[in-house]
What does this fold into?
Amino acid sequence: MSSLDSIYQELIIDHAKHPQGRGLVEPFDGESFQVNPVCGDQIRLRVRLADGEPVLRGVTWDGQGCTISQASVSLLTELVDGLPLERVAELEQVFNQLMHSRGHGLDQALEDQLGDAIALAGVSLYPMRVKCALLGWMALREAIAKALVGDSSPAHIPEGI
Amino acid sequence: MTDSLALSDIELAAIRADFPLLGHRLADGKELVYLDTAATSQRPRVVEEAMREFTENHNAAVHRGAHQLAAEATLAYEAARAGVADFLGASPEELVFTSGTTAGINLLVASFLAASGNKSGGSSQRFAVGPGDRIVVTEAEHHSNLVPWQRLAQLTGAELAWLPVDSAGRIRLDEISRVIGPRSRIVAFTGASNVSGAVTPVAPLVDAAHQVGALTVMDAAQLAPHQPLDVGALRVDFAVLSAHKMLGPNGIGGLYGRAELLQAMPPGSLGGSMVEIVTMREATFQPPPARFEAGTQAVTQAVGWAAAIAYLNDLGMDRVAAQEHALTSRLLAGLARIPGLRVLGPAEADGRIGAVALEIEGVHPHDAGQFLDAEGIAVRVGHHCAQPIHRAMGVTSSTRASLGLYNTALEVDRFLDAVSQVRSYFGVGR
It folds into this structure.
């Protein structure tokens, strides 16, 4: 498999074309708006928490972007929805490590935790693309942080974009 | 534009031999096709050689010290200034060294801000802006010629207004009479867009600005590397440019200002080397250009820039323009034959530079860039630090190929061949 084909695997293309979690829903407990400064791609992501316990009960998002960013947010939705927030934070750490592994990957045990999102491992060979894969994760982290402090206000979206 | 001045194959081969990086092989052994000159140009050997010669024989702080090296360094620095100024059709005292185009515009804004906050009146008042005044820019600007002016407007209460662009990214000259009015104080515009490639017709903008007494600022970063430039003939008040886009090193650029304007303008950056008398209460400032060069200067880079300019002069900017025009024509004609592409700029080579941004239907620029990279082709993807012009043309970002004087017809053809495969690779348009 060429290095190009390794980042554009069937699974990734499929997720980009038929993404999970796309389409914002009400109500939500925390919302984040993130922009990739390189290309201007945007994502708006909402989380809902379970009543009375720190568990994710719904991730929805809207936005546009490249194959990598769209597939990554779709894969993360599949991976983290329904998990305790503590576990979500751990997975975010693991995914971050993977993205900064410069193509070397992680220990098998860590990689296995990422489920299908491990298909994005090849992106770590391309430092210019890591940001694309992390955009959704950044939005997720901020949305959860807002939800945890009870800030369910809409995210700020700059005028005129 | 006559293409008869274009380079012969033999001349072009000789030029390419001067640029070691162009022979660089990528990790997988593929030959590099460098089509990202609008972001930064590659450098001929003479630039590094001039910098090394300076470093090894003349390096010292300029305009201070009584030793021989200081004198040699100062001479080299001022000779570089003369070389750059001459390239622009300016005199040496009209050329301020900066760290680049962005720094030049920020320096202007800081100077205008200093003038706007000065209640004592005097000659600096022609640079003051305030409530009721208008700062005019265009929708075609690089962020570096937009965001600093936004700040100046916010801090002074002046209004920011802009000339829109048309669907090909050209500045709408028919809007001049609506946008440039009696209270307009500054008209800032790019000489050529780094996205659409459109070259700005400067005369109507300068005429309208001068009619109402506004100062004109031209961002020449994209124009200077590609066409002969004469700031006097263009009648602009200020112009800014960067060495690294015109075969020179990073970290050096210039701000041109008409002599009488620089004489009257307050400094925007303060510190050593730009003052005359300093007491604990106040300071007096040197005449330009020293007044605008606070701190230790990038002398080595200035020397490298002058070497790059000498290289361009040896070739002749008319020939550079002709060569790039011929290649741009080939590129545009080839693109027109590929389905599913839209050129985000003028479709003909006349009136544009060889920066050609594309929308590839159904494929995100990052993905297109990744595909092209795998073919050894270096292009720029993203918004190229110019979000508004992208938005005006109905896209968020684009895939941009940009030509330099060292590119070949074969390279253009390799790009065309690769770009024609992008949509099918991503399963679009089948």
About this structure: Chain B has a mean pLDDT of 96.
